């Protein structure tokens, strides 16, 4: 049985798995923490390094590593998805912004989320197309 089949029928990817696969298409070595960091930046463009650390529940050195990985990368693993900018009125604070490549990936991930397939099959052969009113697109602010 393949990963895309379940009991002889085709199984579509859920939105979380599909978004991770799309990120791994950019770089197959993306960690889950780096993917989460990118998603938080998509959702909150202009977020500070400190704020990102709070959302990720990560230490400052870990946040710096993630941001370096998403921006220039390490060695030949450059991503060029985000850039850090220093605030003009406080050069101690750096904010994170999407590059054009990051915006493109964010739009791709947003379309995956909008076409979401439930993670758990409730026994219905057709995927649910209804979305709850409370569900929002995490990347809608950046589109």
UniProtKB/TrEMBL annotation:
InterPro entries tied to this protein: WH-like_DNA-bd_sf, WH_DNA-bd_sf
UniProt-listed SUPFAM superfamilies: Winged helix' DNA-binding domain
Region (Disordered): 124-143
Domain of life: Bacteria
UniProt biased composition (Low complexity): 126-143
Name this polypeptide is given: DNA-binding MarR family transcriptional regulator
